[in-house]
Task: structure prediction
Amino acid sequence: MSQLQVNRINDASGGVLAPISSVMRNRIINGGMTISQRNGTSSVTITDTSLLTYTLDRWFGYGSSASKFSIQQDAGAVTPPVGFSDYLGVTSLAATTVAAGDLYFAGQYIEGFNTADLGWGTANAKTVTLSFQVRSSLTGTFGGALTNFGNTRSYPFTYSIPTANTWTTISITIAGDITGTWVGATNSVGLRVFFGLGMGSTFSGTAGAWAGADYRSATGATNVVSTNGATWYLTGVQLEVGTQATSFEYRQYQQELALAQRYYTKLGASPQGSSGYQAYGAGSCNTSTNQNTALTFPQVMRASPTVAFTANIGISVAGGYTNCTLAAAYAGTSSTLLQTSSSATGGGGDGCVLLSNSDSAAFISLSAEL
Amino acid sequence: MYKQCNPIIVGGEPSSVIRTTDGACIPFDPANVDFQQYQKWLSEGNAPIPADEPNA
Result:
């Protein structure tokens, strides 16, 4: 019996063909930057200096000082690289001096259930390859890092953008970490991917080696936030097992959206639009001002989600519509029972419906981000 | 700032808390990062606004 053993298979033009099995090949969700439930194509200025700010689905930004950069789907309206429709666009909003302890970055946390098979922290740690398409108004050496959740293991990497305002394909192969503590098959953070936009020396380390430190980028990397108006665009991000970057794993839109909805779900207003009276769930009145409504989530979520209403989420009871506010919720990852308060005129035991109250822009958000 | 919620079922235990800055309802789930923030806020010596009078 003969055996065929190859590292990769090229097509006629030299491109790398995808492996036959592509289930969970790309550990990154929304690597093509197509899903943007929260903000659509609106720009988000990163102002929170204590927590991550989620922008495009699964992708966050953070800055030690507020309002130094923004993130926007398809910022600048440049032509995406071939094969892609969207990208994550960073724009520097000032010429920021990056102090030793400062951090400015974009990135994605990957859930432990989707990284446990990498075996990191064991002798059987698998090698991975991170690939992406990047473009900047700046040229030079840029950096990022893969890290664990405990801030005790990190692998800084560098990549080069030789020509300004031109998409560049990057591929970085990283030997799996055989030491350190890595989260296994749980719903906690299994692995973190950071792209440095401005990193102080405290959080910058030698590229190309694992370190027992909390490095978020590589020493000497270009600080995008230090140039007012500088741009940095990213798409086609893929993290996969192996020593070669294979072609980007395209997923159907609904598949990618479903993956993203495990972490954030927007019910109601959407890029596809909705009626002004979109219904979310049915329930019953406890009193004339208090209602319980069942809400089923479209995907099982990573954790019991935080529920938030925009203006004009209402209760329909006895033929009338009245705006309501959240009063309580049960924990649950596939559904919840919401309690609302309103001045609806129903009596105890009357049926009710939770809905958008004549506002096609109203929505309910469910957040179970890492 | 946070505000306590009443139990959904009369006689039950509270299951969530309201974040007053945006009115969001945070369930008591240790894996929820907003709940983790609430726990951190409590550990710093803060106290939530008491819940309204329970429903009849």
Chain A touches chain B through 31 residues (CB under 8 Å). The helical segments of chain A are 253-261. The longest helix of chain A spans residues 253-261.
